[in-house]
Amino acid sequence: METEHRPRPAVVDAVILRKIVKTSNGVEGELLLVKRAVAPHAGDWALPGGFMEWGETAEQAVVREAYQLAAAGCTDWE
Asked: What is the SS3 assignment for 70?
């Protein structure tokens, strides 16, 4: 049985920051990046992200992608 190919609804990227502090020089912190394993741009640094699945919200997709790509397990949204 052949399945119909449907394009994914959208692409999401996670911006995960930690240790954000105000300093005399401005704001400092850390940004989570992943090293791409596959083409295009294999070996380049990128935000964790990917394609949404049908029926998934953007929030669900970004949590899933962040966990899959970086084992970040984002569950606490503010």
From this structure: helix
